[in-house]
Design goal:
27% helix, globular, alpha/beta, 10 strands
Length: 194
Amino acid sequence: MSGTGFDFCLAMQAFCEDICRRHCEFSHIRMQDVAVTFAQTRSTVEWGMQAKLTPMRFEGGAMHQRRGKRLWTVQRVFSHGREMLYILTFYLPRFLNLSFEEKLVTVFHELYHIGPDFDGDIRRFGGACYIHTGSQKAYDRQMEVYVREYLRSGPPESLYSFLRLNFRQLQTVHGPVRGLRISIPKLIPLEEAA
């Protein structure tokens, strides 16, 4: 089955769409407005970032934010004629070399960062650590619950069976791993106050 390669981003997009269809905690997410991408890790070490969600708006879905004397906006990203509100990036091969369970928790972890208003902003919790509720371990324990609930809903194994393989195994079975690559957008200064 090798030759044409494996489109990791297309497979991950389909998996995420199914999560959002089946689990009420993710039903606000419109995956057609989320760019699923991959980036290559510079080293083969197992520790480090496995995935990242990049919001394309500031707090409350704002297009602009004042920081100090400057007004800023975020570089906009379009895919197939649609403006993307989020970029979901997986770092390969590191992500694929996690255990199957760790991969699932990582996917749910990143999707849960998408704000409930789906306005381009992240989900914000109260307190100083507004990203992970003050405890990333507790956050990930909740993701484990969501993963179990999702799997109990009976999704087709074919949607996520590729996650049972590590990077090398995926290459052996399917050939080169390919997909969408997008540079992380930059903040753009608009004006400077006098």
